Amino acid sequence: MKLKEKLHLDCIQALGCIICDLAGLGDRPAEIHHIKDHCGMGRKATHFETIPLCPEHHRHGPDAYHVSPKEFTEKYGTQRELLQKVQDELNITGCKCGCTSAFNESFSGF
Length: 110
Fold this sequence. Notes:
The protein contains six helices and two strands, in the order ααββαααα. By secondary structure, the protein is mostly helical. The protein has one domain: 2-Layer Sandwich (Herpes Virus-1).
């Protein structure tokens, strides 16, 4: 993993679960979920196509993505829609990897 990817994943994880945030449940620790569309068999998205999900929304809850992708999508939206919300948040808060304009304007030490 390249440094830029590691920095990006650190920022994604630090956002907390995107589903909990949208539901007003507060900041819950997140795991990294690589979105699963537009990928070939056995391939996952890049480290820049990730969303932060708590264990309940990622793997363990009744409507977790890895329990039922269809139910997850019906309830919370597509992974691409959630990715866009994450990218919008990073555009506000900035990202240490330099992928957002907010970060590039506010951090000169990178």
